[in-house]
Specification:
9 helices, Nucleotidyltransferase, domain 5, 16 strands, globular, single chain, five-stranded mixed sheet, alpha/beta, Dna Ligase, domain 1, six-stranded mixed sheet
Protein backbone atom coordinates (compact mmCIF):
# COMPACT_ATOMS: atom_id res chain seq x y z
CA UNK A 1 0.00 0.00 0.00
CA UNK A 2 1.27 3.52 -0.88
CA UNK A 3 0.31 6.35 1.43
CA UNK A 4 0.11 9.21 -1.10
CA UNK A 5 -1.34 11.41 1.60
CA UNK A 6 2.19 12.24 2.72
CA UNK A 7 3.37 13.37 -0.73
CA UNK A 8 1.46 16.64 -0.57
CA UNK A 9 1.33 18.71 -3.79
CA UNK A 10 1.00 22.50 -3.69
CA UNK A 11 0.72 24.95 -6.57
CA UNK A 12 2.01 28.51 -6.27
CA UNK A 13 2.06 31.40 -8.72
CA UNK A 14 4.88 33.86 -9.29
CA UNK A 15 3.88 37.13 -10.90
CA UNK A 16 6.17 39.90 -12.12
CA UNK A 17 4.57 43.20 -13.11
CA UNK A 18 6.43 45.81 -15.14
CA UNK A 19 5.06 48.90 -16.87
CA UNK A 20 4.66 47.09 -20.19
CA UNK A 21 4.41 43.39 -19.40
CA UNK A 22 2.95 40.92 -16.93
CA UNK A 23 4.50 37.49 -16.44
CA UNK A 24 2.94 34.56 -14.59
CA UNK A 25 4.41 31.17 -13.77
CA UNK A 26 2.67 28.34 -11.92
CA UNK A 27 4.91 25.86 -10.13
CA UNK A 28 3.76 22.58 -8.63
CA UNK A 29 5.70 21.81 -5.47
CA UNK A 30 5.84 18.39 -3.86
CA UNK A 31 8.21 16.95 -1.29
CA UNK A 32 10.85 16.03 -3.86
CA UNK A 33 10.14 18.13 -6.97
CA UNK A 34 9.41 21.62 -8.24
CA UNK A 35 7.68 21.40 -11.61
CA UNK A 36 6.78 24.38 -13.81
CA UNK A 37 3.30 23.53 -15.12
CA UNK A 38 2.05 26.81 -16.62
CA UNK A 39 3.32 30.19 -17.78
CA UNK A 40 2.12 33.29 -19.59
CA UNK A 41 3.69 36.54 -20.80
CA UNK A 42 1.15 39.25 -21.62
CA UNK A 43 1.64 42.84 -22.75
CA UNK A 44 -0.06 45.34 -20.41
CA UNK A 45 -2.21 47.87 -22.31
CA UNK A 46 -0.78 51.37 -22.27
CA UNK A 47 -1.98 53.63 -19.47
CA UNK A 48 -2.65 50.97 -16.82
CA UNK A 49 0.77 50.94 -15.09
CA UNK A 50 3.40 53.68 -15.14
CA UNK A 51 6.70 53.87 -13.22
CA UNK A 52 5.58 50.86 -11.24
CA UNK A 53 2.29 52.40 -10.07
CA UNK A 54 -1.23 51.30 -11.00
CA UNK A 55 -2.78 54.22 -12.88
CA UNK A 56 -6.23 52.84 -13.76
CA UNK A 57 -7.20 50.27 -11.15
CA UNK A 58 -10.56 49.29 -12.65
CA UNK A 59 -9.10 48.52 -16.08
CA UNK A 60 -6.06 46.83 -14.54
CA UNK A 61 -8.37 44.54 -12.55
CA UNK A 62 -10.20 43.64 -15.77
CA UNK A 63 -6.87 42.97 -17.49
CA UNK A 64 -5.71 40.72 -14.63
CA UNK A 65 -8.99 38.78 -14.60
CA UNK A 66 -8.85 38.13 -18.35
CA UNK A 67 -5.15 37.23 -18.19
CA UNK A 68 -5.72 34.80 -15.32
CA UNK A 69 -8.47 33.03 -17.28
CA UNK A 70 -6.40 32.99 -20.47
CA UNK A 71 -3.51 31.34 -18.64
CA UNK A 72 -5.78 28.70 -17.08
CA UNK A 73 -4.24 29.38 -13.67
CA UNK A 74 -5.57 27.02 -10.99
CA UNK A 75 -3.86 28.19 -7.81
CA UNK A 76 -4.77 31.28 -5.82
CA UNK A 77 -1.50 31.42 -3.85
CA UNK A 78 0.59 34.20 -5.35
CA UNK A 79 4.03 35.73 -4.77
CA UNK A 80 4.48 39.12 -6.43
CA UNK A 81 7.36 41.26 -7.65
CA UNK A 82 6.82 44.89 -8.63
CA UNK A 83 9.15 47.62 -9.85
CA UNK A 84 11.77 48.77 -7.32
CA UNK A 85 11.44 52.39 -8.50
CA UNK A 86 9.31 53.21 -5.46
CA UNK A 87 11.14 51.00 -2.94
CA UNK A 88 13.98 52.06 -0.63
CA UNK A 89 16.79 49.77 0.49
CA UNK A 90 18.70 50.99 3.55
CA UNK A 91 21.49 49.35 5.60
CA UNK A 92 21.17 49.60 9.37
CA UNK A 93 23.37 48.57 12.30
CA UNK A 94 21.61 47.92 15.60
CA UNK A 95 22.23 46.18 18.95
CA UNK A 96 22.10 42.39 18.74
CA UNK A 97 18.63 41.79 20.18
CA UNK A 98 16.07 39.00 19.80
CA UNK A 99 14.12 39.41 16.57
CA UNK A 100 10.86 40.67 18.13
CA UNK A 101 12.72 43.37 20.08
CA UNK A 102 14.79 44.14 16.99
CA UNK A 103 11.60 44.78 15.02
CA UNK A 104 10.51 47.37 17.59
CA UNK A 105 13.88 49.14 17.41
CA UNK A 106 13.74 49.14 13.60
CA UNK A 107 10.33 50.82 13.76
CA UNK A 108 11.69 53.51 16.09
CA UNK A 109 14.68 54.07 13.79
CA UNK A 110 12.40 54.58 10.79
CA UNK A 111 10.14 56.97 12.71
CA UNK A 112 12.87 59.04 14.35
CA UNK A 113 15.98 58.80 12.16
CA UNK A 114 15.14 58.18 8.53
CA UNK A 115 13.71 60.97 6.42
CA UNK A 116 11.28 59.27 4.06
CA UNK A 117 9.87 60.87 0.88
CA UNK A 118 6.38 59.59 1.82
CA UNK A 119 4.20 59.67 4.95
CA UNK A 120 2.64 56.19 5.08
CA UNK A 121 4.91 53.24 4.58
CA UNK A 122 5.30 49.48 4.92
CA UNK A 123 8.64 47.94 5.83
CA UNK A 124 10.51 44.72 6.38
CA UNK A 125 14.09 43.82 7.21
CA UNK A 126 16.54 40.96 6.91
CA UNK A 127 19.52 40.30 9.18
CA UNK A 128 22.62 40.13 6.99
CA UNK A 129 25.15 39.42 9.74
CA UNK A 130 26.28 35.80 9.45
CA UNK A 131 24.47 33.56 11.95
CA UNK A 132 27.73 32.19 13.34
CA UNK A 133 29.06 35.72 13.97
CA UNK A 134 25.77 36.81 15.51
CA UNK A 135 26.17 34.52 18.52
CA UNK A 136 28.96 36.71 19.91
CA UNK A 137 28.38 40.06 18.15
CA UNK A 138 27.27 43.12 20.12
CA UNK A 139 25.69 44.62 16.98
CA UNK A 140 24.06 43.21 13.86
CA UNK A 141 23.76 44.53 10.32
CA UNK A 142 20.31 44.68 8.75
CA UNK A 143 19.00 45.53 5.31
CA UNK A 144 15.80 47.51 5.58
CA UNK A 145 13.20 47.58 2.79
CA UNK A 146 10.65 50.42 2.83
CA UNK A 147 7.84 51.19 0.37
CA UNK A 148 5.00 53.73 0.27
CA UNK A 149 1.90 52.06 1.71
CA UNK A 150 -0.54 53.29 -0.99
CA UNK A 151 1.77 51.88 -3.69
CA UNK A 152 1.75 48.40 -2.12
CA UNK A 153 -1.90 48.55 -1.01
CA UNK A 154 -3.08 49.17 -4.58
CA UNK A 155 -1.51 45.89 -5.67
CA UNK A 156 -2.83 44.02 -2.60
CA UNK A 157 -6.41 45.23 -3.14
CA UNK A 158 -6.33 44.66 -6.91
CA UNK A 159 -5.02 41.10 -6.68
CA UNK A 160 -7.48 40.20 -3.93
CA UNK A 161 -10.34 41.58 -6.05
CA UNK A 162 -9.31 39.24 -8.87
CA UNK A 163 -9.32 36.24 -6.52
CA UNK A 164 -5.63 35.79 -5.69
CA UNK A 165 -4.28 35.12 -2.20
CA UNK A 166 -1.20 37.33 -1.98
CA UNK A 167 1.34 35.51 0.17
CA UNK A 168 4.34 37.82 -0.30
CA UNK A 169 5.75 40.79 -2.18
CA UNK A 170 9.36 40.11 -3.06
CA UNK A 171 12.21 42.01 -4.70
CA UNK A 172 13.17 40.69 -8.15
CA UNK A 173 16.90 40.19 -7.34
CA UNK A 174 15.93 37.94 -4.41
CA UNK A 175 13.78 35.83 -6.72
CA UNK A 176 16.73 35.50 -9.11
CA UNK A 177 19.01 34.46 -6.23
CA UNK A 178 16.59 31.66 -5.43
CA UNK A 179 17.04 30.35 -8.99
CA UNK A 180 20.81 30.37 -8.52
CA UNK A 181 20.76 28.31 -5.33
CA UNK A 182 21.95 25.17 -7.12
CA UNK A 183 25.41 26.56 -7.97
CA UNK A 184 28.31 28.21 -6.20
CA UNK A 185 28.33 31.98 -6.61
CA UNK A 186 31.13 34.47 -5.95
CA UNK A 187 31.18 36.43 -2.72
CA UNK A 188 30.02 39.56 -4.59
CA UNK A 189 28.06 39.59 -7.84
CA UNK A 190 25.54 41.61 -9.85
CA UNK A 191 22.06 40.69 -11.08
CA UNK A 192 20.57 42.64 -14.01
CA UNK A 193 16.85 42.20 -14.79
CA UNK A 194 16.50 43.71 -18.27
CA UNK A 195 13.17 45.02 -19.57
CA UNK A 196 12.06 46.75 -22.71
CA UNK A 197 12.31 50.21 -21.15
CA UNK A 198 14.46 49.85 -18.04
CA UNK A 199 16.90 47.59 -16.23
CA UNK A 200 16.74 46.74 -12.53
CA UNK A 201 20.14 46.00 -11.02
CA UNK A 202 20.99 44.37 -7.70
CA UNK A 203 24.39 43.79 -6.10
CA UNK A 204 24.68 40.82 -3.74
CA UNK A 205 27.46 40.39 -1.18
CA UNK A 206 27.73 37.31 1.05
CA UNK A 207 24.29 36.16 -0.18
CA UNK A 208 22.60 39.40 0.96
CA UNK A 209 21.21 42.08 -1.36
CA UNK A 210 23.20 45.28 -0.66
CA UNK A 211 22.20 47.65 -3.48
CA UNK A 212 19.29 48.11 -5.90
CA UNK A 213 19.12 50.57 -8.75
CA UNK A 214 16.91 51.01 -11.80
CA UNK A 215 17.82 52.87 -14.99
CA UNK A 216 16.12 53.52 -18.32
CA UNK A 217 17.06 52.25 -21.74
CA UNK A 218 15.17 51.14 -24.88
CA UNK A 219 16.31 47.57 -25.43
CA UNK A 220 13.43 46.96 -27.82
CA UNK A 221 15.51 48.98 -30.32
CA UNK A 222 18.58 46.74 -30.07
CA UNK A 223 18.65 44.49 -33.11
CA UNK A 224 20.85 41.70 -34.23
CA UNK A 225 21.14 41.31 -37.93
CA UNK A 226 23.20 40.57 -40.97
CA UNK A 227 23.90 42.48 -44.14
CA UNK A 228 23.95 39.21 -46.12
CA UNK A 229 21.63 39.49 -49.08
CA UNK A 230 21.37 43.27 -49.05
CA UNK A 231 21.38 44.19 -52.72
CA UNK A 232 21.09 47.93 -52.89
CA UNK A 233 22.62 51.00 -51.30
CA UNK A 234 19.44 52.11 -49.52
CA UNK A 235 19.06 48.83 -47.65
CA UNK A 236 22.74 48.94 -46.72
CA UNK A 237 22.30 52.46 -45.29
CA UNK A 238 19.23 51.32 -43.32
CA UNK A 239 21.14 48.36 -41.93
CA UNK A 240 24.07 50.59 -40.91
CA UNK A 241 21.69 53.00 -39.17
CA UNK A 242 20.02 50.15 -37.24
CA UNK A 243 23.37 48.77 -36.18
CA UNK A 244 24.53 52.24 -35.15
CA UNK A 245 21.48 52.69 -32.91
CA UNK A 246 21.93 49.22 -31.42
CA UNK A 247 25.63 49.78 -30.74
CA UNK A 248 24.89 53.14 -29.11
CA UNK A 249 22.30 51.54 -26.80
CA UNK A 250 24.70 48.76 -25.88
CA UNK A 251 27.46 51.27 -25.10
CA UNK A 252 25.08 53.29 -22.90
CA UNK A 253 24.02 50.09 -21.14
CA UNK A 254 27.63 49.08 -20.51
CA UNK A 255 28.53 52.51 -19.14
CA UNK A 256 25.55 52.43 -16.75
CA UNK A 257 26.50 48.98 -15.47
CA UNK A 258 30.07 50.18 -14.85
CA UNK A 259 28.80 53.34 -13.14
CA UNK A 260 26.67 51.29 -10.70
CA UNK A 261 29.61 48.98 -9.97
CA UNK A 262 31.88 51.95 -9.25
CA UNK A 263 29.24 53.60 -7.07
CA UNK A 264 28.93 50.44 -4.98
CA UNK A 265 32.67 49.85 -4.69
CA UNK A 266 33.96 53.38 -4.19
CA UNK A 267 31.16 55.80 -3.23
CA UNK A 268 29.72 53.30 -0.74
CA UNK A 269 33.25 52.43 0.42
CA UNK A 270 33.34 48.73 -0.48
CA UNK A 271 36.86 48.87 -1.96
CA UNK A 272 37.80 45.58 -0.30
CA UNK A 273 35.22 43.75 -2.41
CA UNK A 274 35.36 42.60 -6.05
CA UNK A 275 32.27 42.22 -8.21
CA UNK A 276 33.22 38.95 -9.88
CA UNK A 277 30.19 38.08 -12.00
CA UNK A 278 27.15 39.56 -13.76
CA UNK A 279 23.97 37.47 -14.05
CA UNK A 280 21.36 38.43 -16.66
CA UNK A 281 17.63 37.76 -16.79
CA UNK A 282 14.81 39.52 -18.61
CA UNK A 283 13.11 40.31 -21.87
CA UNK A 284 15.65 40.93 -24.68
CA UNK A 285 15.70 38.33 -27.44
CA UNK A 286 19.39 38.99 -28.05
CA UNK A 287 20.70 37.85 -24.65
CA UNK A 288 23.76 36.20 -26.18
CA UNK A 289 24.74 39.50 -27.81
CA UNK A 290 24.53 41.16 -24.38
CA UNK A 291 26.60 38.40 -22.79
CA UNK A 292 29.34 38.80 -25.39
CA UNK A 293 29.28 42.60 -25.20
CA UNK A 294 29.42 42.82 -21.39
CA UNK A 295 32.00 40.02 -21.08
CA UNK A 296 34.34 41.94 -23.35
CA UNK A 297 33.71 45.30 -21.72
CA UNK A 298 33.88 44.24 -18.06
CA UNK A 299 36.38 41.39 -18.41
CA UNK A 300 34.47 39.24 -15.90
CA UNK A 301 32.10 36.29 -16.42
CA UNK A 302 28.62 37.25 -17.64
CA UNK A 303 25.92 34.56 -17.52
CA UNK A 304 22.25 34.11 -18.34
CA UNK A 305 20.60 32.61 -15.25
CA UNK A 306 19.22 29.09 -15.76
CA UNK A 307 16.50 26.90 -14.28
CA UNK A 308 18.59 24.66 -12.03
CA UNK A 309 16.13 24.10 -9.15
CA UNK A 310 13.01 23.74 -11.35
CA UNK A 311 11.91 21.18 -13.92
CA UNK A 312 9.66 22.11 -16.85
CA UNK A 313 6.61 19.98 -17.63
CA UNK A 314 7.27 17.99 -20.85
CA UNK A 315 4.31 19.51 -22.73
CA UNK A 316 5.78 23.03 -22.20
CA UNK A 317 9.40 22.38 -23.19
CA UNK A 318 9.02 23.31 -26.88
CA UNK A 319 7.41 26.70 -26.21
CA UNK A 320 9.29 27.45 -23.01
CA UNK A 321 12.90 27.64 -24.24
CA UNK A 322 12.66 30.95 -26.14
CA UNK A 323 10.88 32.66 -23.22
CA UNK A 324 13.04 31.16 -20.45
CA UNK A 325 15.25 34.18 -19.53
CA UNK A 326 12.15 36.38 -19.23
CA UNK A 327 10.55 33.98 -16.73
CA UNK A 328 13.36 33.61 -14.20
CA UNK A 329 11.91 36.21 -11.80
CA UNK A 330 8.33 34.85 -11.65
CA UNK A 331 9.66 31.30 -11.35
CA UNK A 332 11.92 32.34 -8.47
CA UNK A 333 8.86 33.89 -6.84
CA UNK A 334 6.74 30.78 -7.34
CA UNK A 335 9.26 28.56 -5.49
CA UNK A 336 9.43 30.87 -2.47
CA UNK A 337 8.55 29.28 0.84
CA UNK A 338 6.37 31.43 3.04
CA UNK A 339 8.88 31.30 5.90
CA UNK A 340 11.83 32.25 3.61
Amino acid sequence: MTWKLWNRVEKNIGMEIKDTVLKMVEVQKSRDKRLLVNFLIEQIPEGLVSEGRIIDREKFEQFLFLTKNKAGIESKNLHLSVSSQNILLRPLRLPNLPEKELAKVVHLEIENTLQLPFEEYVSDFVIITDQAERTTAKEVDLMLVIAPKPYIQDYVDTLQAVGFHLRSINLAPLAVQRMMADRNTPQTFMIANIGEKNTEVGIVHQQALRLMHIFSQEFSKVQEGSFAGLQDAQRWVEYQERQGRSNSILEDFGREIERIMNFYLYTLNNRNQTISEVNLVGDPENMQQLVEFLSGRLDIPVRVVGYGPVEVAPHLEATFQSAAPALIVPTGLAIKDVKA
